């Protein structure tokens, strides 16, 4: 709860989505895996929270758990203050209007046998919104908003390029006027030139519609471009949350700094400023005790191997889960 | 400026409109379709060309084909017209084949879809039932059912229908499993779609290709099973059946082989037609073939 209040303070706006101590456990043949292990975050109306981490850190699982596509094992998900964690399927239908998702692969998430118009109208059908004519008008309206011509409604997904298909996926997610959209690696499958178009579209849509985005990505430059705040995950735990400027200029967690160091610098001599992280991501079946990052941390001390660091507030909305956070004054590179 | 017109997506025909054309481009599709059309024409014309009961004794027995122009395919040892028997037998075979395959299709698709979609205990329970059916040889199972229930067209159809579905259930289950955890279904759930909507509108249409292909094979095997039952004397005694004709003719196979061979050929043609059609459908429904075409 304390963490959540801190998140409240970090933003003057009311959170539309609050995740509290969420745990997602998978039972596998090799034992239980805590894909998400006690994560809390809050998302204010109209803001974009970037969620970054290596593949396998649980960021996609967290996104899917928020939509209850994966059932959380513990913790709470609050939407506009209402706990939806244990809503029955019928109650969930109503809340699903408020939280939507954009998937990584727009080809896999769009039924190839349906026209684009049918696909975008489907959410309206499901929720019984509008008459046939009203739905048609709504589809045309949303197509225009995502930058597709009205004729697109009569075509099939395979007749579009990857970027256009992602526009269709975005239109489908936005047609219900949701308050929150979880974007799971929405541009990772696209060409770099198309990525920029989609990111600009998302930024524009957020301005006009006031929708909040949880933007999941492994690409730091993409996250930096779209996010108001950025959250960093490592092995199922949140390690740092901060404003975009703070996080990129003065990371407090050694893992965040290592991630930022790993981004190639243009104009530098090509040599890394610090040695890169040693070793691989530890097995999620047997995560290290204490701080999960201590096995690879360049500044780890004895207590990091035994005590679990809790997320605590440094200044403003800057939170970090580290016993020995880095100096938060911007470094002179 | 021409760049802009090029960049705009060009209108295409719906992807389904070319399906029949794609089917007709394959030799197996054309031959299968033509043979099946011929059998349907034979079945449809039977009451017009041979209005009398094909089980009536109409001429002297053991007339060889061509011996009497009035009986082009000859008569059997009871003096029944073989051509009339084949024409009327086509009706029985097609009827039993189609209805039994529909029963199998219904049970198999529903079982496979529910097992694959819900997984867990539902899957385990449904698959145990499927395995139970699979451990019994389908023909012996059908034989037992017909023997207990008395042979008639409805009981034979039912017996074939409820013994032939397990392989289809497994096929549908595998296809549904592939889609179940994919983004297509995840996206639909996220939109708030109910299970029935997802299964009927999104999953089944995308597993249609293997279902249609197995449907044609199911019809073929149902015809074959019915013929086998009739051959063993477990056909409906009141209607003529190709298998029954073969069974009756086997006693005189050494001397008057045509009596068993002609209806046997009819069975071969019908089963071949449906298998070729299934083969052609398989190619025509394959999305990779679509790109090649």
From TrEMBL, chain B:
What kind of membrane protein is this, topologically?
Multi-pass membrane protein
| Annotated keywords | Cell membrane, Membrane, Peptide transport, Protein transport, Transmembrane, Transmembrane helix, Transport
Q: Which Pfam families does the entry mention?
A: BPD_transp_1, OppC_N
Answer yes or no on keyword Repeat.
no
**Per the UniProt entry, what is one GO biological process?**
protein transport
Residue ranges of every copy of the ABC transmembrane type-1 domain listed in the record? 90-278
User: Mainly resides where?
Assistant: membrane
Its GO CC terms?
Answer: plasma membrane
Give the top-rank taxon of the lineage listed in the UniProt record for this protein.
Answer: Bacteria
Q: Which InterPro entries match?
A: BP-dependent_transpt_permease (IPR050366), MetI-like (IPR000515), MetI-like_sf (IPR035906), OppC_N (IPR025966)
**TM segments?**
30-50, 94-118, 139-164, 257-278
Q: What is this protein called?
A: ABC transporter permease
**What family does the Swiss-Prot or TrEMBL record give for this protein?**
Belongs to the binding-protein-dependent transport system permease family.
Naturally occurring in which organism (per UniProt): Azorhizobium oxalatiphilum
Subcellular localization is given as: Cell membrane
